[in-house]
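User: quick one, sequence for these tokens?
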């Protein structure tokens, strides 16, 4: 049986590509270009903050598309996650990395807002920055680290995505199900091979989660 999920896979992959690519370009290109062009730290911070703020809505849309597509593919591949050895573990790892990337993205925006307000020429913005719970120097240090951590985390998700693509190969599915059926837990339950046979009728052979 084969099944296509082009829309969900496209949302998943394009969203992740934009999330990774945007964070890497910002860390490598935007930040470095502004540091080299601007000798005044406050002005450099203001321009960098404006650049990241302009990217934030696009990044949010990309993350949303990735999560929607990932949820759709996970639902489609639920049988493989349950019955193919190795798929469950890689799915958990991918979920953990995605959660870490989401947390890093959200915290980066909080820190970026602090720097944006502190570097603004508007007195009201500077007052708001003073009330912000994070100190400016701490925000700058943490943001510098997170802007490199984000490409690393999303690159890890891309690697696991590639692994899921390999695990969808028919020979990998067959070998994974046989390993799962031969596991001590499945043998003790007396239903390993029966579960594999049942799942085999419902597993799409061309979809990855």
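Assistant:
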């Amino acid at each position: 049986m084969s099944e296509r999920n082009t829309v969900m896979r496209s949302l998943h992959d394009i969203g992740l590509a934009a999330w990774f690519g945007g964070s890497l370009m910002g860390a490598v290109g935007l930040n470095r270009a502004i540091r080299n062009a601007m000798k005044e730290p406050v002005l450099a911070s203001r321009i960098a903050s404006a650049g990241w703020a302009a990217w934030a809505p696009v990044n949010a849309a990309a993350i949303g598309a990735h999560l929607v597509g990932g949820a759709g593919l996970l639902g489609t591949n639920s049988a493989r996650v349950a019955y193919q050895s190795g798929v469950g573990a890689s799915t958990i790892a991918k979920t953990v990395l995605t959660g870490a990337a989401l947390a890093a993205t959200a915290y980066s925006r909080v820190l970026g807002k602090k720097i944006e307000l502190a570097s603004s020429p508007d007195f009201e913005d500077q007052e708001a920055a003073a009330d912000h719970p994070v100190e400016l120097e701490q925000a700058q240090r943490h943001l510098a680290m997170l802007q490199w951590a984000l490409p690393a985390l999303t690159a890890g998700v891309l690697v696991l995505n590639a692994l899921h693509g390999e695990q969808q190969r028919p020979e990998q599915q067959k070998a994974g199900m046989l390993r799962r059926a031969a596991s001590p837990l499945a043998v003790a339950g007396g239903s390993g091979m029966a579960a594999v046979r049942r799942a085999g009728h419902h597993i799409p052979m061309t979809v990855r989660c």
